[in-house]
Amino acid sequence: DAKTTQPPSMDCAEGRAANLPCNHSTISGNEYVYWYRQIHSQGPQYIIHGLKNNETNEMASLIITEDRKSSTLILPHATLRDTAVYYCIPRAGSYQLTFGKGTKLSVIP
Amino acid sequence: DTGVSQNPRHKITKRGQNVTFRCDPISEHNRLYWYRQTLGQGPEFLTYFQNEAQLEKSRLLSDRFSAERPKGSFSTLEIQRTEQGDSAMYLCASSLEGGSNGAFFGQGTRLTVV
Q: Which of A34, A59, A78, B109 has its Cα between 20 and 30 A from that of B65?
């Protein structure tokens, strides 16, 4: 699985967009980019995933660069409940998820 | 609640005792995973079942650890002769074979070995 680099922490004002970057320069052609988050004392929660095209769902948008070496998770209107650790995980057909240390997002009132 | 259920949520045990955790996956999911998470780290993969077959075990899963999924539904994770280093959150997840939305995680069982 490709290695990832994420900033250890970020702050975002409540109601503003949170843009969480992830570098995955060694990603292979068949690896999807998955994003999970983990709110304190809970299990990880699936957010979104994509291969090449940008994706959007009710939780977030995922922007993947054309060369696929990096991606950005966008929470369009961050709320206090979005405070969590966000993990970017490249994954091909393997069943396991390889978590790094993620980005701790703090949403500030 | 139709999510992944784990019991107990918390367990405190004395070093050397055996403990067993249970995971009930989402009912139609045929894949089940166990992960371990220590403080400040992301979850680490331990083992994976497809139906009742245990198909992969991480080298993190020492001989003191055993996992079962006897009827392809719920799973148990047993730790024998617990050590202080076993203190962690143990997470269970499930997914559908071929499902693209990754895995769904339970709330975890927090083990403290004293």
A: A34
